[in-house]
Amino acid sequence: MFTGQPVLLSETAVGPQAGQAAKIPGLFAGMREYGALGLVWFDIVQHDGIYHQDWHVEDDPAAATAFRRAAAALTLARP
Question: Is 12 among the domain residues?
Fold first, then answer.
């Protein structure tokens, strides 16, 4: 752990090639475990250099459902 203070995760995501729907619950479980303040989802279609992924959650119904369920169950830390 870097600090005893809550941390906000910025520009985080799970790419579709990594299996978004299956890995989103683990991302939120880690947030719970470490008391994160919250997250900012990296929500773009990326076509830079070697990176070509659509990071949108809403483009995959299973990923969107996993995100909604995990977010609804999350109790966030307070600063």
Answer: no
CA distance 15 to 32: 21
Q: Can you tell me the distance from the alpha carbon of 42 to that of 44, in angstroms, rounded to the nearest whole number?
A: 6
- The domain of 63 spans 19-36+43-79
- Spatial neighbors of 24 by CB under 8 A, at least 6 apart, are 14, 57, 63, 66, 67, 70
Structural domains in the chain (count): 1
Q: Of 49, 48, 68, 47, whose CA–CA distance to 57 is shortest?
A: 68
Whole-number Å distance between alpha carbons of 35 and 4: 9
Question: 53-78, pLDDT tens digit by residue?
Answer: 888 898 889 999 999 999 998 776 56
Is there a domain that residue 24 lies in? Answer: yes
- d(CA 41, CA 46) in angstroms, rounded, equals 13
